[in-house]
Amino acid sequence: MATSPVPGQDPFSVHIDENQDRLAVRVAGELDIATAPVLESTLLHALDSEAASIVLDLERVSFIDSMGLRVLVWAARESREEGDRLRIDGRSGAVRRMIEITSLDRWLPLTA
Question: Which of 12, 37, 40, 76 is the Cys-Cys partner for 4 at CB 3.0 to 4.6 Å?
Answer without folding.
Answer: 12
